Amino acid sequence: MKRLPPMSDERGTTLTELMVGVAAGMVVISALSMVIISTMHGTARVSARVEATQQGRIVITRVMEQLHSACVAPEVTPVKENSSDTLLRFVHQTGSGVSPTPIFSEISLSGGTLTQADFAATGGVAPEWTFATTPYATRQLLADVAPIPGATGIFSYYAYINGTPASAPLAVPLSSADAGRTILVRAALNVTPRETVVNDSGADASIQDSASLRLTPPSFNEKVVSLPCR
Fold first, then answer.
1. What is the C-alpha end-to-end distance of the chain, expressed in Å?
2. Do the beta carbons of residue 228 and residue 71 sit within 8 Å?
3. Average pLDDT over residues 128-143
4. Domain boundaries, the chain
5. What is the DSSP letter of 210?
């Protein structure tokens, strides 16, 4: 049998060995902490981006639905003059009537906030209605909104030439003549998530969509410039 060391034997781990072991443990703990922090940051960034995408998609879908209801009467001009890359001025309405009385709306971007103001019709007949000068409803659509990187605004307007959209947008603010031939409206938003936990530009969401202002598709045989709501 192996003889046990005497009780007086003081051999064991030295201070140097103990310090080396502690240092090695700290290295392992630090590496694990970095992995956990990186994983948590990535998860938070994805969650924030999903939240921003959902908020932006809801708003831009609502705007597109209103634009798709902009042809309230044949040959009406849905988009109005002085619309710009940060201000969309248009008429729209839904209903079962042949020529429903429209609402005039202004959707504007100011200070990172997207707002919609609605004005009621006060008289006139299609396509020359008159509208109140004071909105009956104003609501905030979305906060923390900006143009997508590289753009100066969120709205752009296009005419159709020979049945296809022009390659370049119309100059803004729209003149009366250009508003009368605007047949396609594009909206592009860059939305910052409301969650402040993640300070990461990678969490922003860029959302784009467009609406064609036609009752029938433009024909290649139709005039040189196709007109809206035909």
1. 106
2. yes
3. 92
4. 32-226
5. E
Residue 70, CB-side half-sphere exposure with 13 Å CA sphere: 30
Whole-structure pTM value = 0.78
pLDDT of 63 above 90: yes
Please choose, from the candidates 68, 66, 161, the residue with its C-alpha nearest in 3D space to the C-alpha of residue 105. 66
Percent of residues, the chain, with pLDDT higher than 70: 82
**Inter-CA distances, 121 with 94, 144, 161, 162, 229, Å:** 14, 31, 32, 34, 20
Is the CB of residue 192 less than 8 Å from the CB of residue 37? no
Longest Cα pair distance anywhere in the chain, in angstroms? Answer: 114
CA dist., res. 41 & res. 35, Å (int): 10
Which of the residue ranges 93-97, 120-124, 131-135 has the most confident prediction, judged by mean pLDDT?
Answer: 131-135
Distance of alpha carbon 38 from alpha carbon 44, whole angstroms: 10
Burial of 22 (0-12, 13-18, 19+ CB in 10 A): exposed
